[in-house]
Design brief:
It is a single chain. The chain is built from four helices and two strands; from the N terminus they run H-E-E-H-H-H. A two-stranded antiparallel sheet has the order 1-2. The longest helix has 13 residues.
Amino acid sequence: MTSCREAEPVEDSESTRPAQTWRRRPPAELGLDARKLRAFTEHVGGNGCIIRRGWLVHDWGHPTKTIEVASAGKPVVAHFLYRAIELGLLPGLDSLVMDHEPRLGDLNARLGFKDRQITWRHLLQQTACYGSANAPGTLTTMTCRWRCSGGY
C-alpha cells in the first residue's frame, strides 16, 4: 500500500471551530488554489463546501440544503479505513470488526452469532450480510445488498 502524505501540523492559531456559521478564509491563505476549487465544483455540480483546518474556504450551490448522499460517502469511508490500517490502528481488512465493536458478539444467537465473523473487508465490500440470516461473505455483493436492504 502506498503511503498517504502526512498531514501538516496545525497550530491552534491557524484553526477555528464552527459556531452558528463557519468563519471564512480565502483558499490561498490555507494553501489551496481557488481556480482548482472552482474547476472541481463545476465538475461535481450540486451543493457543497470545502472546509480546511476549520475554515470555510469554498462553497457552491446551496451548501446548507439537506440532501440525500446515498453511496457518495463510500469512498470517504474506504479512505479512512485504509488510513486506519496504514497508521496501525487496524491490523488489516480481514481483521474482525468485533475486536473494535464487541457488541457484535452478542447479536443473533439463534443464527450462531454469525456477526462475530464480520471483517472490515465485508463491510467495505458490503458483503457482511448484517441483518440477514446469511453468514458474512457468503453472498455476492449485489445479492447481499438486495437482501440486507429488505428486498426479499
